[in-house]
Amino acid sequence: MVDEKKRQSRTRITENERYMIEHLWNDEHWSQVEIGRKLGYSQGSIGRELQRGNVLDFSHLDRRTLLNMNIYARIKYSAMRGQYVAIKNRAKFGTGTLLTPELKELIEAWVNVEHWTPEQIAGNVQDVDVSASVIRLWARKGLIDIRTHKYHRKVTSAEKKTIESQRAREREIQRLRNKLRENGDLVRHSIYERSPVVENRQQFGHWDWEIDLVLPRKNNNGLQRDDTAIMTIVERKTRFISLIKIRTKQTDDVVAGFNLFIARYGNGIRTLTADNGSEFISWGFLEHVQHELGIKVYYASPHAPHQRGTNENRNRKLRDFYPKGTSFERVTQKMLDETAERMNAMPLRMALHNKCPLEVFDPEYRAMQRYKRAYAKQKQKRLEQRLKDDE
Q1: pLDDT of the residue at 4
Q2: pTM of the full predicted structure?
């Protein structure tokens, strides 16, 4: 079977491969799967190529009749036609050539004179055959002369004062935060203080663990029916999830639940990202995690779940096992361990190239353990050498 990395690097079918497909399909009657394995493409890619180069027309037949026909009788592939269609479609890529002087003048008139937004223009002006995102892209590149305030509401003077006061307050908070950090006091770190490498998802366990609570059902008054909750802790690089049941959202119970996670995976975590829930911003939790365990905690912005997208995604998948409205009172830690095992065994096609989180997590975790042991030995050797030098 073709290696997955090799298959991903083959983005387009070449002309020679099209003649190979023509022979294997028309003469040898190979299946789409067999041709895909032979040439290093997926079954879907071969199927689309066969439709692209099909020279037979059965548009006059209904779907049932068409499906009852032999597949080799309803698809006769032509490499020449496939190559022609591919080149023709490829010429359509890129939207820069679509901007004509007439189109430029038309868009500028609708935005600057009629005060329409790009979305309104793209959806309602017949002569504008581009999307709103393309119009905004042309504006950013300076290809069309429209100003953003033309399609955004103007900010009033009162709102400007509010924004400026908020910025002044943020600057003062940052000044105090820096002063506390210099004095060695306990400080809540903002998610914006994280290193830019976090976006690459390249470092295992570093900048990459996200934590959240999934709450049980509520009663008719909107209050929780029970006090239990499920703590979800996800590693961003591998999408590996750990599920811990906690008795209540009180600091002691949250700390106890987190200690269970540390007992299992403590060698693989250096930093943590949390939301602004009361259970995580409490000084008791922060002091235990940052001072006692030495794990730096970063906090996302309020009302910004997208900043912890991996955690939110895994929480939604967890709801497949425990739908909203479920009580967690009878859910045991053993049940959660089984659920986490099932979630970590699911292949993720886009995020992990069809690998499962457990398959990626295990070698990363073992490698970090080896690194920590080697680092501890080096540290001990340096300490012993320093003591000898002092003698």
Answers
A1: 46
A2: 0.52
pLDDT in tens, 149-170: 555 555 567 766 776 776 776 6
Choice between 208 and 97, residue whose per-residue pLDDT is larger: 208
In contact, 217 and 202? CB cutoff 8 Å: no
Structural contact between residues 217 and 325, judged by C-beta atoms closer than 8 angstroms? yes
Mean pLDDT of the chain: 80
Q: Phi first, then psi: give them for residue 320, nearest 5 degrees.
A: -65, -30
CATH superfamily ID and name for 193-370: Ribonuclease H-like superfamily/Ribonuclease H (3.30.420.10)
d(Cα 344, Cα 241) in Å, to the nearest integer?
7
- Alpha helices (H) along the chain: 4-9, 15-22, 32-39, 43-52, 63-68, 71-74, 79-90, 101-108, 118-124, 132-141, 157-182, 251-265, 278-281, 283-286, 309-318, 333-344, 357-390
Distance in angstroms (rounded) separating the CA atoms of residues 57 and 345: 44
Residue type, 13: I
Residue written as token pair 């591998």: 238
Q: For the chain, which residues make up each domain, given as ranges?
A: 4-90, 96-150, 157-185, 193-370
Over the stretch 352-389, which tens digit does the pLDDT of each residue have?
A: 888 899 999 988 888 877 776 777 778 788 888 777 77
Say which amino acid occupies 341.
E
